[in-house]
TrEMBL record:
Organism: Funneliformis mosseae
Superkingdom of this protein's organism: Eukaryota
Keyword entries, A-Z: Signal
Protein name per the record: 3632_t:CDS:1
Signal peptide (residue range): 1-23
Amino acid sequence: MTKFYFNIFVLLIFFTAVSTALTTRNDLSVHKIEKRTTCAYNSKRNVLIERNEDKQCSCSLAESIFSNKLKGFFFFAQDECGSTTIAGLFSSGFEVFNSTENITFEIVDSCNRTLYDITYGLNVQFNDDGSTDPFRYTFDEINLDCDDDGILFPQVGKSHYNKRTCDGLRRRDGKNQVACKESGDIFEASDINDFQT
C-alpha cells in the first residue's frame, strides 16, 4: 500500500514539474491573456469587413462630474466591442426631494432632447441622507466614440424627437450631457468629457 502512495506522490510531483515548465514559456502559457477578437453580441459592424469579423473600437474613458446641487459623478468605459459601462455615485443632493420615484437619468443633446434614457439600466438606489448606492450597468447600444453616434460627439439632429433643428428649444453650445430630471424637468446636468489622464 505504501508503494501505491509513493507512486501517486511521484506522479503528482512529475505533473507539477511539467505544468510549471510549460507555463514559464511565453508561447505555451495557459495563463496568457489574449484580447478578444469577436464580440458575443451584435456589435458595431463595418459593412466592408467580413461577416465573422467585428469592428474593433478603441477602449475609451469619459466622465461627467456633478458639483452644483448634486454632488457625484458618472464614469463611462467603452470596450473594444463598442459597449459602454456606466458607473457612478452621488454623495448628496437628493435630500431636497420628497420622493425619488420620478427621478430619471438621461443622456441629452445640446437641445436637451433625450438621446438615451439610462434610468432603468442603472437602477439607482437612493438613501435617506440624499446620497445613492454605487451603481453600474453595461449598455450595448451606447458607445463613446466607436461610430458617428458616439456620445462624445455632438448629437444635434440624431434625437428621435425633432430631426433637424432645435426649433422651439433653447439650444446651448457644447457637448452631450448626463441630465438628472425630476418629473421630466432637468434638475441638474453635467457635460460628458473625454477622460484626461
